[in-house]
Structure formats: structure tokens, C-alpha cells
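[job 4471] stage=fold_predict status=RUNNING
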Amino acid sequence: MIYSTLTVLIDKWSEEDLIKDGMTKERILSLFNSLTVLDFHQKDIKTEDYPQLLDDLIAGILAVILK
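[job 4471] inference complete, writing C-alpha cells
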């Protein structure tokens, strides 16, 4: 369900010309997929505020993707 929602969102961003040049749908999906890998290893990450870390990473990914 998340994958489906994300692909719809990426298509919308593309239609609205919000995606930076050189960014492909596959690259964007890979960036967000990396968050899943990170989530599987959250116990290995030494932080007391994992939700904030995740929010920061999402903000960083969006900064790379969107104009």
C-alpha cells in the first residue's frame, strides 16, 4: 500500500514539475526503500530519538528530490 501511494505521489510531483532534473522514478523509490532497510536495523543505530532521525532523513530525501 505504501509503495502504491508513493508511486502515485511521485507521478503527481512529476506532472507538477516539482522533481529535480536527473531524478528518475526508480531513483526516488530507491531512496525511500532505503528507509525500510534502515528501519530493520534501528536497534543498531545509537540514538535516543529514532522518530526524529527518521523525520530528518525523510526531509533530506525530499530536499534531494524536489525543486
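[job 4471] summary: The first helix runs from residue 2 to 15.
[job 4471] exit 0
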